[in-house]
Amino acid sequence: MHTISNMKALLENHPESGIYTGTLESGREYILYRQEGMGCRTSLEMPNNWFEIVYYDEDGQPEGVEYER
Question: What is the pTM of this model?
């Protein structure tokens, strides 16, 4: 979803825990669930109505991906 440097900047722009929304360059919207000191996860709706959930550490490194319906 994001490059590591972009994700690191996104985490720095949202340092506090919370839920944030944004738009990718493609125009698709995403949700950022931020846990201060714990990294974050992003949620992106896929064309088949599934959601791609990506987990990132505090440095913007991806830690895992899962899919939910």
Answer: 0.84
User: Which of 34, 38, 61, 45 is closest to 53 using CA atoms?
Assistant: 45
User: DSSP string spanning 25-44?
Assistant: TTS-EEEEEEETTTEEEEEE
Measured over all CA atoms, what is the biggest interatomic distance in the chain, rounded to whole angstroms? 33
Judge whether residue 1 has pLDDT over 60. Answer: no
Give residue limits of the domains in the chain: 4-68
- At 64 the three-state DSSP class reads strand
Q: What is the pLDDT of residues 15-37, one digit of tens each?
A: 899 999 988 888 888 999 999 88
